[in-house]
Structures are given as C-alpha cells and as structure tokens.
Amino acid sequence: MILNNLKPLIISGPSGCGKTTLISHLLTLYPKNFELSVSHTTRNKRAQEKEGFHYYYVAKENFESRIKNNDFLEFEEVHGKFYGTSKNEITRILAKSKIPLLDIDIKGAINIHKNCRIQDANYLFIMTKEIKTLEQRLISRGTENPETLKIRIKNARDEIKLAKESNIYGEKNYIYNDEDLDSSKNEFTIKIQELYGNLLKV
Predict the structure, then answer these.
(1) Which residues are catalytic?
(2) Confidence at residue 119, expressed as pLDDT on a 0 to 100 scale
(3) Contact call for residues 74 and 84 (beta carbons, < 8 A)
(4) pTM of whole model > 0.90?
C-alpha cells in the first residue's frame, strides 16, 4: 500500500484500557492532523452510535463479500463479531493530508505489521499496570454480566500477552493509563509529539 509521508497511527489495547478517552483527547488537541479511521463491523448499532461515525454497520454476508474482494487492510473476529479496516478508508484520509488513526484489535495490528500492508506506521499499545484496574472499569460501565465480564478479562490477558510477544512494541510503545487520567493524557501527548514533531498543527 503506497502512502505519502504521513505515517498512520495504529492504537491497540484491551477493553477498559481507556483507548477511547485518549483517542478523543488526541483528536481534540490536533483536529487538523488526525482523523479516525472508521471500521466496518457486523455487530449491531447501539442506540447512541451513528452510522459512518462510530462504524459502518454491515451484514455478515456483505462483510464476507468484501473479504473476497480483498477490500480490507485487516479484519478480525472479536467477541463473535467481525471488524475490519477498509483500504479505501485509509486512502480517503490520506487524500485530505491527514494522519489516519486506527483503533484496532491487537491481532489486526499484528496482521498489518506482519503482512507489510502498511510499510511505515507508528504503533502504540494502551494498557494498565494491573488487570484489576481493567476489571473495575468494565464493571463500572454497567454493560457486562458476569459471563461477558469473564470473557473480556480473559481476552484482555490474551491481548496483553500477544502484544508483549510480538516484535512490534518496545517499552517506549506502551502507554499506561491507570488512575491518574491527566498524567496518562500528558504521557500520551508527549509520545505523539515525539512521533510526529513538526507535522503537528494546533
């Protein structure tokens, strides 16, 4: 995949790590530089979500047809539903001279890196130092029952293990989002400034 000099930013991390909060902070801070890539998914749209903003919601048959047409940069099955990043979505953002921001599962990040579908990108992994912090955040959402909570915690452990075993992340590529959100935002912002330097426009 041919890119200009704007390296996509690929962010991964388990449920409850605070990806959404940090990504929102970044988009608010640098709206002229970054645009969130909207993924396709086969899961149902939630009440507060908007088509084309949170996801492109498609039927499983539609998603499978896109797979056959090689339309996805990456795709994964997560919690029984499919999620994928369209190649056209990355092209669309780059055409606006913005940096594509991908919020994707760790398996998707590994697949992109492994298959060299993006030749040059920046990878960050958001996590907490203690798995208990993730568990408490998921409980506080009020959206999980005991069974789904157990699944998400197991998946979180697996995702962290995958990240640490991959050859993508050095210690500098981890952002720890624990109890002090302001500190986490500051650490995240500093890392973005290190990665993109003079490209950033306030």
Answers:
(1) 46, 141, 152
(2) 64
(3) yes
(4) no
